[in-house]
């Protein structure tokens, strides 16, 4: 049995809350590791938070100014040689199907460090990531480690709805982020991919706090229920519309943008029912994609939704944004507006999709200055590559 297989088997047999302990023991025994630390990316994507272990806890480190953050951002191992101490620190991203979870840091004696060892550690990080996702069904340890501050109850409900923060397949890459991360109102995003289609949903429930969270939970789960029943896109919107109207009788509604991408051709079916909007960068050109505005979900009984269509081409980048982004106000009362958003989209052209939402939200924060964020700000980025030729 080789070293990697031995560690993978130990992880599969471990108690959910003891994954880090198992990895630490295995890497110490097999590779002579002196220190093994696991950090998870916090909800605001500002820090890497330590997973508490029985031997004590490491410190949180900033995501954008640390060796661990470099590994997380570049999504490749980052090696720091500490010649005076005779050790090498290897920081490795823990990522599953494009969803960036955190970073594993391993300190090795200099005589045990080699490129082959780093390759082994990368395989072990993949196994660890899979086990963390499974373990989260049975323990709160890894979810708690992602929190730099306590979540409001509404934010807790919203984050539990999300599919992840990024996803990568051969045909596309996705990344999304919500602000404020720890006190969310009603914005949400969702996606699901099958062998033939990718469905992306951006929702914005009216109101604040628990009321907004309950409304958004109802709408998102109604859309999922319709999607999983195999209904066409327009019927998904209609079913969710009926569910919201039946509960609230028109007193509350949910703005939604629904898109279904055909992976083989790039054909896109769209239902726009409210405030979320989308921009496209194709080459050097950035433009807003406009569709026929239809009624938000739940405003009236038995609303009929009509889908529209367009096509994406390999190399296209789509940016979805809620009104908390493009209506963000500066201290001089100037809106962020489409022009500033187009500039931000052009400026992030070299970043991968997973990093674009954070960069755009930082631009929004710079524009806003000291003004408080009065609404959720949601950004979702989709890079389209198309299906590779077989």
TrEMBL record:
Keyword flag Hydrolase: yes
The family database entries (Pfam families) matched by this protein are listed as:
SpoIIE
What top-level branch of life does the organism fall under? Answer: Bacteria
Q: Which residues form the signal peptide?
A: none
- Fetch the InterPro entries from UniProt: Bact_Sigma-Reg (IPR052016), PPM-type-like_dom_sf (IPR036457), PPM-type_phosphatase-like_dom (IPR001932)
Which GO molecular function terms does the record list? phosphatase activity
PPM-type phosphatase domain mapped to chain residues: 169-384
UniProt keywords, alphabetically: Hydrolase
| Full protein name | Phosphatase
Species, as recorded: Streptomyces kanasensis
